[in-house]
């Protein structure tokens, strides 16, 4: 499932064509392990994909002169595309053989890879299916604690699990960009705790008008362009006034 997101201004998260659209386009691949006999719970997959994005953003190989740094810069300089594909069995083992990071949740495993050109996927990943990432929660997730970062989903949208995984990744990235270096380090050192929950309609209205990072989908698949999909409600962003 391929997505990018938008926000206002000259940003990689925007709907209007801009100068960055003329640059080579890169995509961040995410692969979720979905074995027939033991698929992951939906919410755990959403949370794990968000943590996977944060993990690669903060990895030493993505920073400075690290081996992934140039690809990460090229990717973040254009539209922030993410593609979620599924794998099982031998497919998953082949994906694990490529450079990347596997992040494990309670039941979910998501492997994130350094960005690749939009038309230059490794053959091991290009073969993987995009569809078939519909997942369920065996029981409703518990309420998120008041101190936990929460990625709130729009209650009015019906998105596939694959698309929603990309959207929670976008939201986590927006929150990361808004945090100070100290706040980022604290979140990383704690293991990137976060929750993904669906907001009730009243709460959604409050969240979207509160100045928190908000993902607007570019509308390539499933939903209309400009749809608000996720709000990133990190406690540090609630406490600290942002310009």
From TrEMBL:
Its EC number is 3.1.1.29. Residues 1-10 have a biased composition (Polar residues). It holds the Pfam family PTH2. The keyword Hydrolase applies. The keyword Hydrolase applies. One of its GO terms (molecular function) is peptidyl-tRNA hydrolase activity. It is an enzyme of class 3 (hydrolase). Residues 1-20 are annotated as: Disordered. It catalyses: an N-acyl-L-alpha-aminoacyl-tRNA + H2O = an N-acyl-L-amino acid + a tRNA + H(+). Keywords: Hydrolase. This is peptidyl-tRNA hydrolase. The lineage of its organism: Bacteria, Bacillati, Actinomycetota, Actinomycetes, Kitasatosporales.
């Amino acid at each position: 499932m391929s997505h990018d997101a938008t926000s206002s201004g000259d940003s990689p998260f925007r709907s209007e064509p801009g100068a960055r659209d003329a640059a080579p386009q890169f995509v961040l691949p995410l692969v979720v392990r979905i074995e027939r006999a033991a698929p992951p719970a939906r919410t755990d997959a959403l949370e794990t994909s968000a943590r996977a994005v944060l993990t690669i953003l903060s990895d030493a190989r993505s920073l400075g002169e690290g081996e992934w740094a140039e690809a990460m810069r090229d990717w973040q300089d254009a539209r922030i595309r993410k593609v979620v594909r599924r794998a099982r069995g031998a497919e998953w083992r082949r994906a694990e053989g490529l450079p990347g990071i596997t992040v494990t949740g309670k039941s979910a495993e998501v492997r994130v890879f350094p960005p690749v050109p939009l038309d230059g996927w490794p053959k091991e990943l290009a073969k993987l299916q995009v569809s078939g990432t519909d997942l369920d929660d065996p029981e409703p997730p518990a309420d998120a604690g008041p101190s936990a970062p929460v990625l709130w989903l729009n209650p009015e949208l019906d998105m596939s699990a694959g698309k929603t995984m990309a959207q929670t990744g976008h939201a986590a990235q927006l929150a990361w960009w808004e945090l100070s270096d100290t706040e980022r380090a604290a979140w990383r050192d704690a293991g990137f705790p976060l929750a993904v929950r669906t907001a009730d309609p009243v709460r959604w209205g409050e969240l979207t008008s509160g100045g928190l990072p908000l993902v607007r989908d570019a509308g390539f698949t499933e939903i209309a362009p400009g749809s608000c999909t996720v709000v990133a409600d990190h406690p540090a962003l609630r406490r600290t006034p942002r310009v």
